[in-house]
Amino acid sequence: MGPSVVIVGAGFGGIAAAIELRKHSFEDITILEKGPGLGGTWRENTYPGCACDVPSHLYSFSFAQRKDWSRLCSPQEEILDYLGGVARDHGVGGLVVPNTKVTSCAWDDEARSWTVRSEDGRTWEADALIVATGQLHQPALPRLDGEFAGHSFHSAQWDHDYDLRGKRVAVIGTGASAVQFVPEVAKQARRLHVFQRTGNWFLPRKNHAYPRWLLAIFSYVPGVERLRRWGLFYYGESLTMGIRHPRTLGKIGWLRSAVFMRWQLRDPAVRRKVWPDYTWGCKRILFSSWFLPALQRPNVELITDPIARLCSGGVVTADGVERELDCIIYGTGFRTTEFMFPMEITGAAGRSLREEWADGPHAHLGITIPGFPSLFVMYGPNTNTSGGSIVFYEEMQASYIRQALAHVRSHGAAAIEVRRDVESASDRETQARFAGTAWTQCDSWYRDETGRVVTNWPGYMREYAERARMLDPSEYELVPAREPAPVAA
Ligand code: NAP
């Protein structure tokens, strides 16, 4: 039984936490989800070409491996289907309360529990709170002067009713999402203008469907898919190694990208515009064999002049040129460093998480925050990866949280709270480990406005697993249970 747990968010993180808790007989679990169902980013992002750029044998739960992934990197529907299936198989799909946007979570020092409120005024009480809202759920729209009179939407809110065929379309942004949908839009639009602010380093990814013989090997040769997962894990670690050591091993990654990009970019004018001027791995390395060829199609123009403003007919660049458009698609990413905000979270003594994070988000192992008893974050600060699978990290976090709650349960306590000195020391150590790495060598969505890297883990998946595998009770303090009220004579 108890403690009772409210989980906010029904993406991979929320579902991982619910499964882990259920496996260890925590029965009282509620998952509050702002959308109409589970899936998180894989329910929200439905743009054409949407797929994971992390191979599915790794971007999946270790306890729910599949032998029949259709291709190296599964498309969005397949991932959503997978997550729904895993939730169903583990009996947690029914715990999701859909269409419930949480606006505030407050710790009550007296009651020693959390009160969670939704936008429509409903409330929940719980002994523990798991915030699994992720880093990539709040679309970022650029602040541009002027107003466009045509149609526009963000890539995470794709308007499938809008027919792009024969239209003059602009895409603003060339990040991981845009490189997936630009090749698809280029096939439909009459003219496509791609506005790039910064170039990217690319590595190949064709992502053809697996041939039947390979699927048969996965299905019938014991251990092959486990071996594949292992190989992909260490391939991911090798990317991290290049990012951690940009002057030495990073050069190998750089060379692979440079050869691939030189081979793909036949048009010298496009090549000059695309070529990045920053260290390999500083921003997310993009995997696509289709984006750079798409930029060289006759109906596609790559624009690197900064956008000066919008006008009713289109976009005006700094050189004064106006492109007339029917539609603007914003591939401008997410407000990653805001994490769960604007949700209001208030911990012990009424201290808000905004105050606690005034100098930037930080949490012990990205999970626990001093002053916030039994609050746990999934995919929290410094747990993103540039060369691995978030699902791997989330499994570690789910197990860590379960151990923390088991500790509370076995001691008959009300809650558990990380020691401030422990969290400060681990934050200092995390930040120190970024020194000399590629992550610190350009601006990116990994960093906040002060330049602190707040989203990414500075090391390897293996290291995170070592640290998060076992909860160390000495790093925590227990909040004692309330004395039972005296019985009236
Ligand atoms: P993103 O990587 O943050 O890219 C946003 C793009 O918009 C960048 O090219 C950025 O340019 C540009 N941009 C932002 N503000 C702009 C402005 N004011 N004017 C002009 N350009 C602007 O966002 P995303 O492509 O949606 O991807 C976000 C993250 O989602 C990825 O990094 C990845 O972690 C995840 N994702 C994963 C997959 C997957 O397959 N696993 C697929 C898609 C997305 P700058 O580079 O100059 O900032």
List keywords for this structure.
489 residues, alpha/beta, 5-stranded parallel beta sheet, globular
Report the portion of residues in β strands: 15-25%
**Class from secondary-structure proportions:** alpha/beta
**How many strands?**
21
* Mean of pLDDT: 96
Helices, by number, come to 13
Helix coverage percent: 25-40%
Bound molecules: NADP nicotinamide-adenine-dinucleotide phosphate
Stretches where pLDDT is under 50 for at least 5 consecutive residues are: none
End-to-end CA span: 31 Å
Mind describing the biggest β-sheet?
Answer: 5 strands, parallel
Output the radius of gyration: 24 Å
Strand order, biggest sheet? 3-2-1-7-19
The global form is: globular
Structural notes for this entry:
With about 500 residues, this protein is α/β, with parallel strands linked by helices. The protein is built from 13 helices and 21 strands. It has a five-stranded parallel β-sheet with strand order 3-2-1-7-19, with helices on one face. The protein has a five-stranded parallel β-sheet with strand order 8-17-9-10-13. It is globular and about 85 Å long. The chain starts with a strand and ends in a 10-residue tail after the last strand. NADP nicotinamide-adenine-dinucleotide phosphate binds next to helix 4.
